């Protein structure tokens, strides 16, 4: 007795399962990041660059998965067609099998042929998926630039993020009245809330605080942080009160004893550091020199 169901079951077992591609190219909206960066004197460029990379990776995964889904569907359709061909042939010839052994042999051989065709089609499908898998593996293996958030707020200052100099700045000799007066003015604003563009008591941004403080000491300096690298650049060990700690998007004022005053939210004191949100550090500057 010929087994008509055997070839059909063998073909059906090779039909690949359908799947639903993941929807991951849509990343959350971060429209407020740029405004937040302004409020914290940060640079959102790296964040948005990484956000673009994330969206690009997600789009690649989605498009690759969608392509794989199409190939899988085509393979499944071909296998079903092969199974249907055998079923039609078996339906036509089954009544003749009891009286014609030759028909039984022919149908058996045709069943073997259909199963072989199905195996070849599955092998082709697997080869079609190989470049898609390689594309995803390349994405997964791509090096990721190491990034550490080095911003330190005035209220929380991890020791690992602070400057660790070999020694404290040496005592200042000579007159530094303007620098000391600027520090006194800046310290008088501790607790003042951060206001982007603020340069008066009641609300300061980073460069607004330092320019206002020096103005109280009778010294005029540029208004923006990146332009406050003026006067004489000094080494850490030569710092004195009033010297400015300058990045390309933030500025603070050295207040003595390894501390600086800066416009966080609110204005406060923090240990001297040379890192801030990945900004380029421009050094220590003495506007009065």
Automatic annotation (TrEMBL):
Q: What is this protein called?
A: Hypothetical secreted protein
EC class, as a word, reads: hydrolase
Q: Which ranges carry the NlpC/P60 domain?
A: 176-289
Compositional bias of kind Low complexity: 153-165
What SUPFAM superfamilies does the entry give? Cysteine proteinases (SSF54001)
Question: EC?
Answer: 3.4.-.-
User: Has UniProt tagged this entry with the keyword Hydrolase?
Assistant: yes
Stretches the record annotates as Disordered? 143-176
